Amino acid sequence: MRGAVLYGRRDVRFEERDVPTIIKPTDAIIKISVTCVCGSDLWPYRGVNPVPEPTPMGHEYCGIVEEVGSAVTSIKPGQFVIGSFFASDNTCPNCQVGYQSSCQHAEFVSTAQAPLLRIPLADGTLVATPDVPSDDMVPSLLALSDVMGTGWFAADAANVKPGSTVVVVGDGAVGLLGALSAKQMGAKRIIAMSRHESRQKLAREFGATDIVTERGDKGVARIKDLTKGIGADSVLECVGTQESMMQAISSTRKGGYVGYVGVPHGVELNGENLFYSHVHLHGGPAPVRRYLPELIKLVWSRKINPGKVFDLTLPLDQVAEGYRAMDERRAIKTLLRP
Amino acid sequence: MRGAVLYGRRDVRFEERDVPTIIKPTDAIIKISVTCVCGSDLWPYRGVNPVPEPTPMGHEYCGIVEEVGSAVTSIKPGQFVIGSFFASDNTCPNCQVGYQSSCQHAEFVSTAQAPLLRIPLADGTLVATPDVPSDDMVPSLLALSDVMGTGWFAADAANVKPGSTVVVVGDGAVGLLGALSAKQMGAKRIIAMSRHESRQKLAREFGATDIVTERGDKGVARIKDLTKGIGADSVLECVGTQESMMQAISSTRKGGYVGYVGVPHGVELNGENLFYSHVHLHGGPAPVRRYLPELIKLVWSRKINPGKVFDLTLPLDQVAEGYRAMDERRAIKTLLRP
């Protein structure tokens, strides 16, 4: 079969890869219905993270179960399933408290931009939908595999409650779905920080009530203006740079909450500044598995449509163009069809 | 009148100071019943914080109201009162959400090691006890002015709940009272990290169930041993150094909570490490005012006796010895009688 392999900076190739097979009795093989390119894939693609050797890519997936190992009991061939980018046993102490992305046996799923995918710990990782979904629903189900679950975790970690004033830092797919999550959780006001027209539009469609185009100190000043000088109750940090993190912390009211899900790159927090900011800080790799049953229900009942973040659809063999379009911000998120 | 003045490294003097008077109509003057030396006073005393000029000292106090300004309505001369080290109006948006130590009009109370003290924003800052207390209760009421409220905030910020497993990093007065707070909040297991016998004893008296004498990585390994490899639900950081902060974060389970109240000195948190630690982080200068009514009730009904942290009592004119004894760790906390 052929799949995506990253060779180095801005060099992603569609080439022959081994067909995955059951290695452990807890594995499953799924036939990918759709996969996609993640904002976090751009870190190595842009050379920010080193790529020491040719690396198969992709960690977002949904599809039909093709085969299961002998120990798998809860998932059957023919079912349509979704899983997180972290495989998890869903039984260890970390999983039991809802942190499946810190599962004691977590394995990163990293070869999803391909027609077939091996999933370790299938019972703990995969969640089946009630039935095989109609085609139009599939992009929204795919979004649950990472970006929707991650946006939801950001909002949850930022303690969004009915009536909250929320700021979203970052207008990538995760930030946009953070706005959608905040709306679902009952936020009264959702301020999206974005300077890209198409993203602003989608943010508004997802529930943003205000758009702030300024960044850094000017962005913080604008948030303070909009919140009577106090700052927001909840701020979702969906980028992962020093600037975005400081922007998030400084936009939060005393005693407010920062939910951070942007993978930090070069972020250092000064203890004293953090101390006097009086914010709550929580984040990390989103425990997507925790939210899958709830989010599948919301998509299945058509209450949310996170698949709207896919504004470019390509056949999988054009994966290189999919990366390029996101790198150049021509696309928010690229959906790939094997 | 005479009070404590810090001149520089290990040079605290008892000398003539101006008698405080009402400056603003919202002020009160109180006659100090007892005051004390704080662990945080040791930072400038040890030369860690610079002392650019002779500085009156002391921020913990309780006593009898002597005089109030014309705008003060809730406090009357003759009442016994306690206040936080941060004066607050208790009405601004930050106060309303319980962060009085970040009051928009906060003033640090910094001249309490003296017979008389001016309190700004008296209505918002001071809380009167039901009556003038008996002498034996006064040390416990004094403790509410900072260390007890700070330990309580650490436990609250660390989300201590009935049944929690709690670690306390730091065996100063705040750490010890953090253990007492965790006990009051229903913690099942309280692990105090301490290598000083007298402090271990008091920690146990306050509710600690285990003592860990190791520090740093060895300390973390010991906590992991004691918690089936998982880490604690709640960790109270009551020191403020890089080592203690990392010890706290690393001792916390995935999804657990770190409440940090040690004033950070040179602490830098690596964003990526924090991200993958999956902990909740909250802290800052304790909003002692928020907790005063509740804590006064607990002391008044003799349910808690935080005054036990005072293991040295001196007349105020021996304040220099009070600092020395704490600096040399001969005393946990020095109570001073004007």
What can you tell me about this protein's structure?
The structure is a homodimer of 338-residue chains. The first copy, chain A, is an alpha/beta fold and 338 residues long. Chain A has two domains: 196 residues, Medium-chain alcohol dehydrogenases, catalytic domain (Quinone Oxidoreductase, Chain A, domain 1), CATH 3.90.180; 133 residues, Rossmann fold. Helix content of chain A is 30%, strand content 27%. Chain A is built from twelve helices and 19 strands. In chain A, the strands form four sheets. In chain A, strands 3, 5, 6, 9, 10, 18 and 19 form a seven-stranded mixed sheet that branches. A six-stranded parallel sheet of chain A has the order 13-12-11-14-15-17, sandwiched between helices. A three-stranded antiparallel sheet of chain A has the order 2-1-4, with helices on one face. In chain A, strand 11, helix 6 and strand 12 form a beta-alpha-beta unit. In chain A, helix 5 packs across helix 6. Chains A and B meet through strand 15, strand 16, helix 10 and strand 17 of A and strand 15, strand 16, helix 10 and strand 17 of B.
